[in-house]
Write a structure and sequence with these properties.
The chain is mainly α. The protein has a single domain, classed as Orthogonal Bundle (ABC transporter involved in vitamin B12 uptake, BtuC). 70% of the residues lie in helices and 3% in strands. The chain has a two-stranded antiparallel sheet with strand order 1-2. β1 (131-134) and β2 (137-140) form a beta hairpin. The radius of gyration is 19 Å and the shape is globular. The protein starts with a helix and ends in a 14-residue tail after the last helix.
């Protein structure tokens, strides 16, 4: 039982990181109906920004986290403005192919020696790690940091979406862009801010991932990005609480699969969840059925 609880905590740690990435997928899809496959690579850039902020600039963790979030927000808004905005009226397949192209560009551009380089880097830990024992279960200060930071960011995001004017504008644009525009909402600004906020969350996830699993490389965003997409679909893509719940389930399932079945099967099991969800409940756990205009 102790081993099970220990793996549960480890799974929740991974799940909270996935949640921060999944939020970007679900927010962007909710606004522009686009699966931004470059989002996992924004997560990677966030990890590197945190790496340089802590290792080179010697910033404390809160400032390093803010630096990475700000940098990723700017990157996300730039990607939207350069790559996606010109294709807003194009067929969805064009935007999807562009998203894959942006993803590959970020991976291989950052692999160049004069950018981040192709080699693995050890992520610096900005504080002393302490492990607490509670009834045979180990909880480290890193896990506490991941839980606390993720929960605070998720609460802030939910407050922004539900209680602020920009959040109200996001919900209006998500419901009907044309009507929102007629009501005086700057749709282009709302879409850019949505990309920025989602990318900032991914940047925070990258820093937390680097602290929790201290090894980063330019291709590190591929699998977490795909699994976070699965988490968003599982929770109901377009739903912020759904993305969080789906991500926690994904993290726990992946960790339990490694612990009790096989570490080589964890990815297969994770992606099998996507197939099952699409077969049984395509709208996800908290998704809503919608009508399609023809």
């Amino acid at each position: 039982m102790t081993y099970f609880l220990q793996q549960l905590i480890n799974g929740l740690q991974l799940g909270f990181v996935y949640a921060l990435i999944a939020l970007g997928y679900t927010m962007v899809y909710g606004i522009v109906r686009l699966i931004n496959f470059a989002h996992g690579d924004v997560f990677m850039v966030g990890a590197y920004l945190g790496f340089f902020a802590i290792g080179s600039f010697h910033l404390p963790f809160p400032l390093a986290l803010a630096f990475a979030m700000a940098g990723c927000a700017v990157l996300g808004m730039a990607i939207e403005r350069i790559a996606y905005k010109p294709l807003r009226s194009a067929p969805k397949i064009a935007a999807l192919i562009t998203a894959i192209g942006v993803s590959l560009f970020l991976e291989y551009f950052t692999s160049l020696n004069f950018v981040f380089g192709p080699n693995y880097q050890a992520f610096p830990i900005p504080f002393k790690v302490t492990v607490y024992q509670l009834g045979g279960i180990s909880i480290s200060t890193i896990q506490i940091l991941v839980f606390a930071t993720s929960l605070i960011l998720l609460i802030i995001l939910q407050y922004i979406v539900q209680k602020t004017k920009i959040g109200m504008a996001m919900r209006a644009v998500s419901h009907d862009k044309e009507t929102a525009s007629l009501m005086g909402i700057n749709v282009n600004m709302v879409i850019s801010l949505t990309f920025g906020i989602g990318s900032a969350m991914a940047g925070a996830g990258g820093v937390l991932y680097g602290v929790a699993y201290p090894q980063i490389n330019p291709f590190m965003g591929i699998m977490p990005g795909l699994k976070s997409f699965v988490a968003a679909v599982l929770g109901g893509i377009g739903s912020i609480p759904g993305a969080m719940i789906g991500a926690l389930i994904m993290g726990v399932v992946e960790t339990m699969s490694s612990a009790f079945i096989s570490s080589t099967m964890r990815d297969a099991i994770a992606f099998s969840i996507l197939i099952l969800v699409l077969l049984v409940k395509p709208t996800g756990l908290m998704g809503k059925k919608g009508s399609e205009k023809v």
